Amino acid sequence: MTKSLRASQPAPRPDPSPDFDVGAALEAGEIGVWEWDLSTGQMRWSAQMFRNLGLEATAEGDLFSLLLERIHPSEQQRVAAGFAESRARPGPVRLEARLASSGGEPRWIGFLGRTVAGPDGVPTRMHGIAVDSTRRRRRIEAGAAALSESERRLSELNQRLQELAERRSRQLEASRAQIQAIFDNSPDWLTLFRATADGRFVYVDLNRATERAYGLSYDQVVGHTVEEILGPEQAQLPLRLMRECIRTGENQRYTARRTMAGVTRSIDVMFVRVPEQLDGGYHIMATARDTTERDDMEERLRRERLLFELIIENTSEGIIVVDNELRHLLWNAAIENINGQPREAVLGKTVFEVFPHFADNPVGDAWRAALKGRRAEMRDYRFFSVTRGAEIVYDADFTPLYDQDSAIIGAICILRDITERHRIEHLSKLETVAQLTGGVAHDFNNLLTAAMGSLEMIARDSRDRRTTSLADMALRSIDRGAQLTQQLLAFSRRQALRPVSADLNELVAEIEVLIRRAVGETIDVVIKGAPALPRCEVDPAQFEAAVMNLVINARDAMPAGGRVRLTTRKLASKEIPAGAGLRSGDYVAFTVEDNGEGMPPEVAARALEPFYTTKEIGKGSGLGLSTVYGFATQSGGGLHIDSTPGAGTSVTLYLPVAAAAPDETRQERAADEHTKGSGSILVVEDDGDVRDVSIAILEALGYRTLVAGNGREAIEVLRGPDTIDLLFTDLVMPGGMSGVTLAREAQAIRPGLRVLLTTGYAGADAPPTAEFPIISKPFRSAELGRVIARLLREPAAADAQRQG
User: How far apart are CA 60 and CA 720, in angstroms?
Assistant: First the structure.
């Protein structure tokens, strides 16, 4: 059973110049495509193939039989034999045949293709193109007609010569003048040779056209042999053909490139034997025509076609061409690399057969728009490339293709890979936000620290319920301000995390009540943690904030209610999704999945951008997912979004499995928070308000305090006689000495001295990992008490060991 093929194998690839019309070039080429599956006998044609054979694309029946029926009866046997011979062995297929016609001008068609064999060497299929070669044949026939005319003229001349010979005695002068006039004025190169007894040929006569071609006069040529005029090498072929002409009486013909009068020309030469002997010997009349211009034009066309193919094959831009039915006609090497689909799997099939999901997404809309005569474009479109194993971003332009009558015959799509440019732009946005947040975070957190400490003491000391309530309300606002600052710093990857070995299942369980309260009663919450889940290296507070962020996003996507599902699972190295950008190792995957509205591709593509939000004004900062992404990457992991409009969204955090033993328990931390302290603490802080609040908090916790406004003052105190159990210092201070430098000098002065750093924003001054503990501003008094109690509980030897 044979089928009609609506699209073809790759046509010549278009010039990447934006002004080059690939469709017009293909149409002008009148290129049809055919394919023959030798194992099934099935032959398929493109629509152009039907047109080239003068058939309707809806023609039914065996296509090869239809093909033979369209061949002129005199050519059918030769064409059938040619295809049979090509089927028998792998290799090129080249045939040309005249088409049967019911009237009008005869038409010709050329078949160019290849027989392809399977692994066992047995031919399995044939494929190729069919080109209407009528124009070329007409040019050839026109040349042949001209040459035939020359032959006719020569025959007429020979006839006249024969008649003149018979009437030589009475009409010699009149006939010679008439013949010479015809001979001399012919546009063809006419030359008369006489065969000698020793097998040579001597010039007897030549016309003016021949003189001009040779660059020699009549007298310089006549009487000389062919070898003398042309030279031994160039004379070999003409001499052999003239001897054959004398021997058989049949016309002989050849084409060649000859350098004559300093000019290299293409010539078409025919030798005709004069019917009867003249002057006791045979004569040869040679008719030649200069075909240089025609041959040069054909060579230029061949080279242009080759260049055209090389450009299309080697361009970095993906090029796709489809016909009016969206069947792929062209699929170049660049698009193979971008998409991962080989052209053999695409050509001849429609866009939606190869990519069903394009039917109702922007790609399908763009193709349909182009077929309606409208240009369409897609910017920053994302998809996962199998060949690269990563997500890529590209721009695409869709343009209609017109024929010479301005009718749309298809469309072309040009794809440009902008993944690297997009990555650089994204990093630039991150750096911009990082600079913005870094510039204000330190001062802002100092303000919050002073306010938070003061309000805590007011709430603690006041006996007035209203005052306590107002203080608590203000503290909650400060907490929100501190959280926003931490989100900004986490997003820009400048927030100093405090990772510990933690069980994600336990962390989620501890905030389950908050999760259910946040989503409300109209949303079901399903929490399913994997058993025996490995512990992760995460900052518990930041992880809990990330969970709440994702849960609230899920809630906002389900205004009418729904279901949110939180799950954990272990992920081995081999299970890491391609393109996730994760280092090799084991991870724990934490997923928040909802069945809400979902996100269209253009929104999902920008979901991690800073300040991008689709929520109403006042209901979203645009830092939600970007903050979670910053936390994940800063923790050594990653984030992946999978969303389908109308079906919901799934966000997965990948966090590395902890290598160390579990950190202290929450119960231990809670016990520290309620422990009254004792000992002497040196407080070093350049901000007066923060310094006063810190002193008040520490003294309320039971500690004795010493005070310094900067690093130099602190060094003087450290060199004094006072007992100091712990140095509590700001990280960033004026005067050229940072908190890290002060801590190192302090331990050099007092070995074993415990150190606690504090900062609103560490930036480049962050201490090396594990050298000194750090507490972020703003801090609650309970948190500060817990950290100091833990530090003072450690034996001095541990500090000495840490130093070493």
Answer: 106
Around Cβ 331, how many Cβ atoms within 10 Å?
25
Sign of the dihedral through C-alpha 274, 278, 280, 284:
negative
Cα separation of 734 and 710, whole Å? 7
Q: Rounded to an integer, what distance in angstroms lies between the CA atom of residue 786 and that of residue 768?
A: 22
Strands (E), 529-574: 536-538, 562-571
pTM above threshold 0.85: no
Walk me through the domains of the chain, giving residue ranges and CATH numbers: 3-132 (3.30.450.20), 146-296 (3.30.450.20), 315-417 (3.30.450.20), 500-656 (3.30.565.10), 666-803 (3.40.50.2300)
Let me know if 87 is exposed, middle or buried by CB neighbors in 10 A (0-12, 13-18, 19+). middle
Residue 651 to residue 161: CA distance in whole angstroms: 99
pLDDT band at residue 6 under the 50/70/90 scheme: very low
Q: How many CB atoms lie within 10 A of CB 301?
A: 10
DSSP string for 431-463? HHHHHHHHHHHHHHHHHHHHHHHHHHHHHHH--
Angle CA 547–424–442, to nearest 5:
55
> 69 and 29 in contact (C-beta within 8 Å)?
no
Identity (one letter) of the amino acid at 145?
A
275-289, 443-457, 581-595: segment of lowest average pLDDT: 443-457
Reported as a single tens digit per residue, the pLDDT across 534-582 is: 999 888 878 888 898 899 889 988 988 899 999 999 987 677 766 566 7
CA-to-CA separations, 311 to 16, 44, 131, 332, 677, in angstroms, rounded: 7, 28, 22, 10, 78
Quote the pLDDT of residue 549: 85
Helix ranges, 109-167 (H): 134-166
CA distance to 135, 198, 273, 282, 457, per residue, from 245 (Å): 32, 16, 6, 10, 124
- Say if residue 778 is preceded by a cis peptide, omega within 30 of 0: yes
The answer to whether 638 and 630 have CB atoms below 8 angstroms apart is no
Burial status of residue 747 (CB atoms within 10 A of its CB: 0-12, 13-18, 19 or more) = buried
Contact 740, 759 (CB under 8 A): no
Dihedral sign for Cα atoms in the order 572, 574, 578, 581: positive
Sole residue written with tokens 């009867």: 276
536-555 per-residue burial string, b: 16 or more CB within 10 A, e: under 16: bbbbbebbbbbbbbbbebbb
Q: Which two tokens stand for residue 525?
A: 């919450």
Alpha-carbon torsion angle 85, 63, 106, 287, nearest 10:
-20
- Where is mean pLDDT largest: 266-275, 506-515, 594-603, 721-730? 721-730
> How many other CB atoms are there within 10 angstroms of residue 177's CB atom?
9
Mean predicted confidence (pLDDT) in 150-171: 69
Q: Report the alpha-carbon distance of residue 220 to residue 228 in Å, rounded.
A: 11
Burial class for 173, CB neighbours closer than 10 Å (0-12, 13-18, 19+): exposed
Which has the minimum average pLDDT: 251-260, 310-319, 793-802?
793-802
Mean pLDDT (the chain, rounded): 80
Following DSSP, what letter does each residue of 230-262 receive, concatenated? H-HHHHHHHHHHHHHHHHH---EEEEEEEEETT
The model's confidence at residue 663, banded by pLDDT at 50, 70 and 90, is: very low
Q: What is the largest CA-CA distance in the chain?
A: 154
pLDDT in tens, 389-417: 566 788 899 999 999 999 999 999 999 88
Dihedral over Cα of 369, 371, 374, 375: its sign? positive
